[in-house]
Amino acid sequence: MNFKNSEKLYKKGLINLVGAVNSPVRAFSSVGGNPLFIKKAKGSKIIDVDGNEYLDLVLSYGPMIIGHRHKKVQKGVAKALKNGYSFGASTENEIRLAKMVCDAFPEMDKVRFVNSGTEAVISGVRLARAFTGKDKIIKFSGCYHGHQDSLLVAAGSGLATLSIPGSKGVPEEAVKNTLIAEYNNLESIKKHFDEHSDIAAVIIEPICGNMGVVIPQHNFLNELKNFLKTKGALLIADEVMTGFRSKFGGAQEVLGVTADITCLGKVIGGGFPVGAYGARNEIMEQVAPLGGMYQAGTLSGNPIAMAGGIATLTELKKQNPYHKFEKIGNAIEIILLETAKKYKVDLTVNRFGSMLNPFFTKEIVTNFKLAQTSDTDKFAVFFWEMIRNGVFLPPSQFEAWFLSSAISARDMKKLTIAVDKAMKAVSKM
Ligand SMILES: *Cc1c(COP(=O)(O)O)cnc(C)c1O
Description:
Layout: H1 4-16, E1 38-42, E2 45-48, E3 53-56, H2 71-83, H3 92-104, E4 110-114, H4 117-132, E5 136-140, H5 157-162, H6 172-175, E6 178-181, H7 186-195, E7 199-204, H8 220-231, E8 234-238, H9 250-255, E9 261-264, E10 275-279, H10 281-284, H11 303-319, H12 322-342, E11 348-352, E12 355-359, H13 368-371, H14 376-388, E13 391-392, E14 401-402, H15 409-427
Parallel strand pairs: 3-13, 5-6, 5-7, 7-8, 8-9
Antiparallel strand pairs: 1-2, 2-3, 4-10, 9-10, 11-12, 12-14
């Protein structure tokens, strides 16, 4: 396997692009070497510009849940393309996708479409402040909610990988209303409420995927929701990653918790730029044109993106692959743990349905601090050996691996062999 064309493009890309990437998670900063350039993808597989074929466990960081270039999605989008790309006026497909989304999340009466997960969360937070008339937001260390100023503190994978504490260019003013709590620790939330009377909301990844996968323990989310109710504060579920992935109704459906405001992205557009935020009527009526909270977008509800979203969600609902995800996810978990045992490598695997990742640590990982006990040098060796054996993983210890419904028995065989070789390489370090 060689990467000559990727190397060439990387050098060329450095001239006019920042680091030759348009999102820092795509850079190979923490694993070394150059980022791969992709030519195309189909189903469960992705092919780079050197013709190397990989089983794709990145899946565009989540959106490609039914695999790449599904026929139904291509057809839906092609049909939309014929009618025009953007109108600056409403189309029927926006209503159709809105209904699909509201039907999936029972607490959601209305939804507003935006263009990314970041935008969805910016708006969801503004909405919580508009509705409660309060300013402070609590977030959890290790959770990532997009790159808006006020939430770019203690923000998980991208930042952990690059070792940037917060971000340059974010004024202290912008984060003065952001409070940090520890995942799976209700006391750390209660403490903030003891000290502050103006907390609008707590924002959480109900299943966290941005410090690696971290799962809420012992009814944590239910207890959090009940506690917030007594304080008149809202729960914002950032389901940009988990929405339609953990279950069709997101992590909320699996965990039996309903948030006041839900933010969506990734799967909702099936690879096209769609984000959304939604809530019950009483809350959404704050949003312009019904209410005084302003939020707008030239390309919001874009007809091509709506068609991609509708086709993806329709096919996803039909396939209902969540049982398959559980089975395959569990099989991968076992492969990882048994191979680690065989080669005497310390490994913890966290998994929730079709999101999983191994941590190179012997700790049980329930929060960001514990995630950071992982040996990232070991991950780097593991990563490259997986690449050389045809499995494309996110180039960071702190990113989740994703499954698509297109994964086959043959893919699983390839994965098993790759894991054996990669774990062996790690054991020789
Ligand atoms: C990816 C992600 C975002 C940001 O979405 P973008 O589309 O990258 O802006 C926000 N929150 C969570 C939980 C995410 O996983």
